[in-house]
Design brief:
Length: 57
């Protein structure tokens, strides 16, 4: 997954349209814009996989 968001950010910075980037990477526009927002707000650290809680026992 990490490679996809890095590529997404790169393609957007190169001027590709969000629609094209989403299609190239086979992701939703919503995910794409979330990655872009996280990158703008927190840099590359904002794009790292977020840990979630496991299932309740």
């Amino acid at each position: 997954m990490a490679g996809r968001w890095r590529r997404a950010v790169f393609l957007l910075e190169q001027g590709k349209s969000p629609d094209d980037v989403a299609r190239i990477l086979n992701v939703s526009r919503r995910s794409l814009f979330a990655w872009q927002r996280d990158y703008c707000e927190h840099g590359e650290g904002g794009l790292r996989t977020k840990k979630t809680r496991g299932p309740d026992s």
